[in-house]
Specification:
single chain; alpha/beta; Rossmann fold; 2 domains; 6-stranded parallel β-sheet; 13 helices; 11 strands; about 35% helix; about 15% strand; globular
Length: about 350
Amino acid sequence: MPDTRHIVVVRFSAMGDVAMTVPVIKAVLQQYPHVVITVVSNAFFEPLFKNIDRCNFYQAYTKGLHKGITGIWKLYKALKQEQDFDAVADLHNVLRTKLLRKFFRLSAIQNAVIDKGRSDKKKLTEKKNKVLKQLPSSHQRYADVFAALGLPVNLQSNDLLKVKENFPHATASLILAGKKLVGVAPFAQHKEKMYPLHMMQLVLLHLSKREDVQLLFFGAPGDEAAMLEEWTKEIPCSFNIAGNISFADELRLISNLSLMISMDSANMHLASMYGVPVVSIWGATHPFAGFYGFNQNPASIVQADLYCRPCSVFGNKTCYRGDLACMKMISIEMVIQKIELILQPSILIADENY
């Protein structure tokens, strides 16, 4: 039996990117019983790694204690005092993680870093002469980092998803017996990645007519939560989760969903962690960039065939056409059909006005 090998895994924001590390880390730990991993990430993300055997979590405060060069030095010193590490897996490759990696390298500790494939992604998003092809997934890019450390992993295993958790006490009384729970995450960080809200409402009004469905709305506290509260007044058999329970409880609830409806956003990846099917709606971005949910069925993607897509990797560039056609070309019927195929494959969508 090989000696225990302790690896620091570094990945800060954003939430979706951190969530995508989970199945890869599980693969490493399952396939290499002598490996122990300490994940270093933003404190808020700790629940993502709960109950993973031999996986520790170290809270980083990149906007406070661990801000700047001196802060990263403090983080390095604290980690060195915590454990004798054998290697560093940098799954982020930004200035903060480069500094941390450099400090560990001064101690002769092996390290490997993610190749983000920036050149290929640039070609994918060019206005002219796009090279429209599937790029390696983020999950595979993460796995390649571990391979560089001598730990190649198989991501095809059927045992890499998190298990279904108990309903959180805060919502147990609100869940209706016999209903399929459908999560709805209608928001995204950028409007270029967000299906028009009035069209999403029409999708949900149609879906609420099903007697076997209860809709659960997910979003951020504040303006998003306030809007979702208004939706619950208009859409039958719906409940707003946003701003009402902790992130850890949100994950417990997500693990019990029958379906998640989301944009190209973090909720797609949170649901994917638990093997929950996702109907994802894509606008300015594209699954070819490698950010699709782990083990999700490509047939559940909703997107328009438009010459300018994708115009950016992350959806953070203003639509140069000015009309957000990539989202507006996606009809309500297109979204409903994808949803119905998952909830009840035998149902055919009747012709009607939505």
